[in-house]
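Reopening this ticket.

The earlier resolution said the output was attached, but the attachment link was broken on my side. Pasting everything inline this time so it's all in one place.
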Amino acid sequence: MAYKTDIEIAQACKLRPIGEIAARAHIDERYVEQYGRWKAKIDPALLRETERKDGKLVLVTAITPTPAGEGKTTTTIGLADGLRRIGRDVTVALREPSLGPVFGIKGGAAGGGYAQVVPMEDINLHFTGDFHAIGAANNLLAAMLDNHIQQGNALHIDPRRITWKRCVDMNDRQLRFVVDGLGGKANGMPREDGFDITVASEIMAVFCLASSISDLKERLGRIIVGYSYEGNPVTAADLRAVGAMAALLKDALKPNLVQTLEGTPAFVHGGPFANIAHGCNSVMATRMALRMGDYTVTEAGFGADLGAEKFLDIKCRMAGLTPDAVVIVATVRALKMHGGLGKSELQNENLEALEKGVPNLLRHVSNIRNVYGLPCVVAVNRFPTDTDAEIDFIIQKCRALGVNTVLSTVWAEGGKGGEALAREVVRLCEEEKGEFRFSYGLDGSIEDKIRAVVTKIYGGKDVSILPAAQKQIDELTKLGFDRLPVCIAKTQYSFSDDPTKPGAPEGFTVTVKNVKVSAGAGFLVVLTGDIMTMPGLPKVPAAEKIDVDENGRISGLF
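Inline output:
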């Protein structure tokens, strides 16, 4: 049987005018700023002026990712469409895709099959230009920093202690470490520099956590770009860069409205990675979606140990959000990979491998229920090769923890394949009252917070803090940053910091290599393992297959 590609399905969709989608989301036309026929920016004044009350918030997360795939974004979209099919007033809130994965290997972030947001080509490429604005603001700050040094360095900035990097929204390993300012005195001071991918920039984190223009400006002003010869932090406010940066970001800060294949309103806005940043769409978009729907379905990046942990411990803490239910996405295929099977062996029934792999799912379930106190359901994306015995095995294991398992076929059937999951989500929201709590408080030391995440969420034994990282922790504590939450940068492929340890490893120690402050975002970034803030392209990048014809029709985009 020949399956249609994602782009073929998306291009065959009859899109509704964006004004119609806005009306479906109870948004008056005076708040709608159209970007063509199918996309719009929504004026944040809507949040101040609407009298609607917030709806229910549903978080979709997943097991630890594998090459077999889990389908978290697809499930998020299909669940929203399923909720609409059973008569619920629903919105969806998603991250924007980065061009790095689009042209690299991971792919886009618009869902798949018959559960997508559209126009998918626009969303996966330039969309409304938000990421370009974020990159421009980041690089303006870098330019003003180096110019300040060139023009006399009144702030006594130590060029050896500059922490601010330039950025570009592309996987480009060549830019990880560079030396710039060469060519003589007129061309700047020679120094070591580097680029991050835009989604790893602190501007992205600030953008996604800001609640208004004024909050954005306050956060931008707190960004630390380096340290003076005397050891004092130097900020964007010190460089008088805040106003110009905010001017670049003012339109980008307005949430984007698009639609699913079935016409459900979708707010797609912001896009930090979850392994090197906090992995959630913007606070502005989430709040707008919550206000304009009785149910809002959102997602957090990678597995629940990364995206969900940061959504709950960072975003919900800062924005005052409380989820009503959590969906944990899994596949039989991925769990068998966690049990030790290779990708070529997944089509055959193998309960032994499934038994070895299912503890990964169960640990995520236990974390959501027992650490965070939230009701949850397991959504199993069913593949044709999955057997009844394998499905029953997962159902029984989850039932022992008091959690229901629902089969999802949203990739093949869209909202129809998400109706059963939608009914269980409604039941959780209406009948089960959670007791939401964070995995750690803010009063403990930086070391205490890191250790809490490692032991409570990852299932590790302890942390090993390298001497250089301990020195950074001591300095940050002295500067008063020890009361901030932690954003741990870790491999997405394991609960541990070792990507070769799938399943639910135990007794491991997580090594902390580097700790830095994102003062504007309001959290500490803790680097573990070998985390690249500038990825590289694979041997055969997806970009090689993408093309456009004379009529502007794009092909090869998934």
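Reporter confirms the inline version is readable. The CA atoms of residues 453 and 557 lie 37 Å apart. The chain is about 35% helix and 20% strand.
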